[in-house]
Queue: 4 jobs
Job 1
Amino acid sequence: MFERLPEAGGGTITIAVDGIAVTARAGDTVAAALLAAGFLSSRTSPVSGAPRGPYCMMGVCFDCLATIDGIGSRQSCLVLVREGMRIETQRGGRVVAP
Amino acid sequence: MTEQASERQEFDVAVIGGGLVGSAVGWGLARAKQQVVVLDEGDVAFRASRANFSLVWVQSKGLGMPEYAAWTKRSSDAWQNLADELKETTKIDVAFGRPGGFTLALSEAELAARAQMLSRLHNQPNMVRYPYEILDRNALLKMLPQVGPDVAGGSYCPLDGHCNALRLLRAFHKGMRELGVVYRPNHVVDAIDFRDSIFHIRSNNGVLAVGKIVLAAGIGNARLGPMVGLKAPVRPQRGHIVATERAAPFLPYPIVTVRQTDEGSVLMGDSAEEAGFDDGVGLGVASAIASRAIRMFPQISGLNVVRTWAGLRVMTQDGFPIYDESRSRPGAFIATCHSGVTLAANHAGNLAAMIAAGRLAPELEVFSARRFDVRTAA
């Protein structure tokens, strides 16, 4: 759905999304890397269960929430990718330990 | 609007205040076939209804006034019917649940103080009877295994519950509209004249003539009461609420200071401050609230906090509500409390019926603000 511009630079970085190795570019936000890799939804709404994904890409809409390196509900459009970063998509509300 | 036009009564009753108390009474009055207008102040108002914790709470209320315990229990008992009626008529689910609720103690001393307080409450003459339990840690763990190691025990009352108070306010307003109630926002009441058994309400938007008047303006009642010969010695008391992101359901009971909403957010609120009309947020208070909540439920420590806010409770000297009617201006009533959610079923039911009939029942006499008057010496 999304394609990178041919002139886009930056070195290659590998991150894991739900345990799957994904190639990103240095300088990508997590949201951009998710969209470029075809992950259009990063979570589901805890209220309705509907899929949600990066939308405004500038920190306003809070729809791009994802678990990044173990910390839940981070705004993925405001976090830059790093080598070895672990991203998990979220299903429903955060699960707290029983 | 001209003076001439306002001489004719335009509505049976005007409710001043469109928060939880005013809208519950307004909805109830409309169901009692009254023609109702609600005058609401506007966004500058200190809206206690938007800062509350959504508990429908019984345990621990009424030490010093057992009639308040009975009034509270009565509303709690009527709450399921209220929720059902709102859902049927407005299609809004206010998410009422009454699984019982806990107050948790973080030390043996807190638990002992709690047990003593509840014992004094229930030993009062004329105290309404209802069940409650003091639970030591082992007994508590059987019902609430989620608690952390710092919790010494707690008290449990099966009458306690909670709801979604934002939806409750919306349901009352939607219900009022469907019943033909006229809602007028941005009406700040400046004066109320009483002539020929008609109240003439002067606001920034002209004059309105009505047959009866209900003051339900929260802290604003202190200013409005004297306009109709009533007293409402109320002061603001600040309370903080900390809200987390939505989590999967893990807490099946409301705790008086921690609850999980129907949509998953964890709310924490554990403060009462005398701060005048300052509704600003104090980070020290907020972190103390979060710290106590995490000691009660360590598993929430990983949740993100998404909002923190403060609101002003409407507090009397003794902490009990005021329901009163004016002796000098018959038809003027006042209702003021800090538990607009818990008491919503009474306000929409009994209280609205009494006001529609034009008289408060004798059982409400104990709630008159005359209780604050200095007694004449013998």
Job 2
Amino acid sequence: MTDEFDSLDANVRWIATEARRPVPVDADARARLLEAVRREPVPTSAIPIMAWLTEPRGFSLPPFATAALAAGLVGIGVLGGLLLNRDGRRAEQSAVAVVHPQLPDSAAAHSVKFVLIAPQASKVSVVGDFNGWDAGATPMSSRSADGTWTVFVPLQPGLHTYSFVLDGSHFVPDPAAPMAPDDGFGHRNSVVLVRKPAT
Amino acid sequence: MTDAAYVQRILNGDADAFTQLVDRYYERCARFAVRMLGNRDDAEDALQATFLRAYRSLGRYQERDRFSAWLYRILVNQCRSLASRRGQREKVFIREEAALLNAPDKSRGWAGEEEELVQRILAELDPLLREAFVLKYVDELSYEEMSAATGVGVSALKMRVKRACDRLRARWEYIKND
Amino acid sequence: MKNSLIRSGIVAATLIAGATLLGAQDVRDRSGDPLGKLDPQTRYAVELMLDSAKLAGLPYGPLESKALEGISKRASGRDILVAVRRVLRTLRDARSALGPLASADELTAAAGALRVGISGAELTHLASVRDGKMSLTVPLIVLSDLVTRGVPRDTASLTINQLLRGGAADDDFLGLWRSVERDIVSGTDPGVALLNRVRQLPPRVQAGPPAAGVRPPEEAKS
């Protein structure tokens, strides 16, 4: 254990060392606690006294639920983000909790056509969650002078938020698409839902 | 006298023996509560609730669980409950805003400031990451003990500790580069 | 309400005819570190929120995406932080309302609904009507869009509710949306447009009985 501590980054070790300092304890708070304890009924063993005579088996790691019961903790809310599997069983808890993937089995991209009529623009691109909102990533092309800009973009099935960018800096939503909520930056985005192919 | 022996005495009617147990664990638990909750008042409430709950549940404590681990479990849960009840996630000092606006200045010297500084840095972490880091490197629990206290698997806890360390390390990087 | 922008691309293009061209900053980051363009403090703060999203089992893509969007739109670090936090908060609230089995898309759509003022209680109610049989994504998108365009919240919410109970499918919602949007753009009052078009839906779909007392569902007790 000391090895792990020693191999920590120096700054992190400093944080841990400082955090180990004892905090001043309020004598009153402690006294109040003991007062409260004295008012409690004396606890009695719910376990046959024989259990105390067994040799301690050392620390074991019982499954979570069993341990909770054994420690008399039923009823204490455990806010640990327990996840339920689809069938309702408690899922393995992991540090990065699993988000149930909703993409279909064939997560093949589908080509979506974006169109914008903007005759006055000299360049138009589409930006969205599929290209990191990068204005340079997906330029649109205007074949003729009528100002119709198009591009085909392969999109994964699911919900996508996007916008058009005119001349590198002017963000406009897609007039033909449902609107997303206010983007938080003073503009309005559009959404497109790419459906998986009918099976 | 071992913890278990104290428990035995309490169950046999010697309620004052609980005072000994409290003496043994109060400061340690207080430190955890303050590091987690960020302020003394909440910490004291959590401590009160923890030791009372422990006292009431003593009858169901079984010796195969080490007493400190059992107590820590109650403590961890009480701190989580209290944090949730007090809406600490969205508390006035919103964590990320604090990180953005109040870059701590390591160059300042004196001890009281440093503890406040560390408290602020810890407060920036997601509570679950903070919890893992504190249990590991402040309370120095083993991963097995941490697992029993939090109900989270060992590998998940290791990942959380690592992520917490990554965040904390990055924190200093960003300060240095300012 | 930027009706002019919504009306047609032509109008939108006309509006920008006189716009000055700002210096185009290259926001592309080829290094595989998308958040690298953020200043260190903002970046750290955003990563704290990504941590929270991951630990809570929420989709973190929308948070990352929002940060990138902010970079692209040249927002300040502070504005980016506020926007990302809002995404996190509404996703959390959406999860509370819809439950742990909601998909990432449903959560995003629900977060959008919350943003336009639909309450968590109403969302929970919609989820219970749908009863997990089909995704709520499209109904919620349509709901949010219509409210954004001016349909009164209660009207929109109750209508969607009614359609769900009548077993409306995604295509029904999308078809409805298209016709209502067209009407609004042509000048029809949004609430009226919605109610008119609903009446034109196939009887099986609008057959859902209106909510008892035509009241929004009560706030869930906390």
Job 3
Amino acid sequence: MYEGVAGEAPSLKHPFGVEDSGIDVFSEVIHGTRNDMYVGLVASLLTTIVGISIGAVGGYFKGLISDLVLGITQIFYVIPVLLLILLFARVFSILVFKGLGLTLIVLILAFFGWSGISFVVRGETLRVREMEFVQAARSLGAGSRRLLFRHIIPNILSPLIVLSTLNIAGFILTEVVVSFLGFGDANTSTWGLILNEGFPSVRTEWWVSLFPGLAVVFCVLGFNLMGDGLSDALNPRLRE
Amino acid sequence: MKMAQKLLEISDLRTYFFTEAGVVKAVDGVSVDVDNGETIGLVGESGSGKSVTAQSALRIVPKPGKIVGGSIKFEGQDLLVKTEEDMRKLRGPKMAVVFQDPTTSLNPVYTVGKQLTDIISLHRNLTKGEAQKSALRILERVGIPEPEKRLKAYPHELSGGMKQRVAIARALSCEPKLLFADEPTTNLDVTIQAQVLDLLKQLQKELGMTMVMITHDMGIIADMARRVTVLYAGKVMEVADTVTLFTVPKHPYTEALLKAVPSVAQTQSLDVIPGNIPNLIEPPSGCVFHPRCKYAKEICMKEVPPIEKVSEGHYVACHRSRELKLEGKGS
């Protein structure tokens, strides 16, 4: 990583300043961007896949399966996720998956983060499955799998895509919290880790905290706006 | 008269919905025969069981509904013993449904072309291009102008009448032998209604299709159907050929339905049938129609009237059908 004089204030040469360790903050934020995007995108992708599968099954099939799925989803929805993420991150990184690094965080986030999507998918599936076009497709020979994947899920994609996009921001934020608290992967540079390193000297070397903080803010804002934009773009009624 | 082969034979069908409030007997002992090539009418108010009868024939009754009794035979085969897999192969190429509201019966996220080719390629081994061609032909057939352009349109870009034509095209895309038209014109403008009915008649002739017209509109029945089955609260009230039913109805409910049809020459106010369709969880004792029947006597409250033959092809379920002189429509 690009280095400069330890503790140097922002200048043309080091626009975000330099850390105590002598590392240029700008270059560290850039590295952090890559790693945080990886966390947000992959965790959101995983939760979307898991959430759709579980939610769709729970919404489409009635009876015992539906109740069971709803119960499991509710449990995952109400547990204090952040505490468990911190616990799992610490325990697993020491004991089991030493070499996984950031991927371990992604897996933990995804494991605890699918219930929101699942709820939306379940509710929307319950709504859409009763619509006449589903019955119409069934009356023309479509089976369960076809009804679910060709007719129900495409009709609930808009809210899902919006939610998944917002989830990217959410997972990045959670990762920032985890790293900031020192529970993340200490060998991978993320925005949270920079914030963690900059925190003790935030009064004097403010630039170490400010710039990664701004990166988080713009990133989260960006994904929120993207979610809005996608929801408009995906609405066939607004498509010309 | 030549005995045509029965295409569909429903006898003593019972389809109940097991809801939390109780068992709703939506269809309770309905029998309907459909000959090859004819159009029959199923008439009744909302909730009389006419749509559920059609759903039962295709075995697509939504949960918590279940067929609990009776038999349904199609081309001589018992449909109630078929596997879901086999039923799926029948739906489309053998039997199809046109639904009431084309705004909800077409999938909003797919283009017209996609909806048609989806069904066509589900049942036939065609290449994408062939399916596309087939979709184009069927759109032409249902009288859609500029069909190439419409293939790429989304349902919301079409008018109500056009949407219903697309829905009809979709139902006919695999050339079914039997078409259930479930109130296909109820949600359309009056002028469009006539067009759609004409289209159905014409298509039926061209394709040699059999049709079951489900409606509450006696006018449509007069226009379309050769024979009629009148349903009320999940039970058959009267069966007759259309002319007989209109001129000499034998059931008070049929009479009431006929009187509820407005005509141009009418001078007095329209007769409405008092009351609502009964609660099907606890249907009225005796004849289900007795609480709303102006001719009801004591026996009607106590005993369920059996279906009796009035004349060839004319059956009625009414205790007083012999004594009553009921009024039909003049024409």
Job 4
Amino acid sequence: MEKEELISLYFEGKLSEAQEITFQQLMETDADFAEEVRYQENVKKAITLNERKQLKATLQSFETEKKTTGSFTKWLAAASIALVMISTYWYFNQTPDHNSLYAAYYQAYPNVIAPTVRSETKNDLQSQAFYAYDNGDYKKSAALFSEIHASQNEEYAVFYAALSLMEDNKHEEAIKLFDSFKSNKESRFSIYAEWYEALCYLKLNNKPAAIKLLKQIANEKNPQQETAQRLLKELN
Amino acid sequence: MSATNSIIDLLKKNDEKTIRTFYNDHKNKFVLFAKRYNINEFDSIDVYQDAFIALIENVKRGKTDDLKSSLSTYLFGIGKFMIFQKFKKNGQLHIADDVASIEIEEDLYSEDDVDLQVRLLQNGLDKLGEQCKKVLQLFYYEEKKLDEIQEQLGYTSKDVLKSQKSRCLKQLKELIKA
């Protein structure tokens, strides 16, 4: 029997007992034969790993698709709830209720740093932190972002740690972190840090502190200016 | 044909809708299950995906054709086994659960343990022609017998298929030499 045939039968799992013995003998005595078997074992391994990788990517794409649609829907829902609450407030409420104002104006800040795309290479601290954040596991994301800040001194980490704390109802702790942006007006987060800090004060019923911050935001040109002006009006 | 059988057939054909539905239908239950062992969602989804991949592999190799249990029970069996393996390795797990209810072969294809030739082959495979890819994929990955491949791909004789297969293997060998 040809050697090639023998190897093929080996991979098909169809070697007879006698063929099995020949096969083993050749493996020990015929270096070329052994080399060819090893080569084909490796082909099998390579194809298997490629197939798995491809399927893994497909499954991961199911997760990211859901995530994007998920957070978009959440965003829309938050926006429409905010609208309803604001209009309800206009019609029915004469005295400002800080909690409902907070709820009306508060929207989770999106993950703009590391869109959750999971791949083998990105299984690092940052991805884990944002994964937790995107999934609403704020206790975990707060801890992870603090860790990133401690080890890498990244300013985004402070910002998202504060947001996580806020989501976790730890507004006092969040304020401390937002405060750290005061010395760093250049930061792309500083205006949002002020805005969220104002909302923290609102939540804590500290109206003067909230107004002070909102006035700062309302008086300069920035993406939150109009919103801050609107909220100020409602507070006055 | 039973429901399980038709799902198996669709999975064999790589039907994306079936894969997606089957994947989504069991994910949350698995994540909940994994929580009992203090595994966070991030890790449990990762394990779930690997279990799912192993399931598809076994489906394609025909190992689930005579399955006595449902396919989802089978998937959970693999997943539990993987959790068990993973945490046994880390020395963190103390369960004497019903993990062994499904027999799972030891996986010989760990990513961590791959030599240079395999890496070269992984790239070389992409450069092969479609027909070669198909033949090798069916023979080595799906572990189909030559007779089945001959029928599936419509070869006039087994010998034609055999020489095609050895041509492909030679071609691949040349590709990784370059």
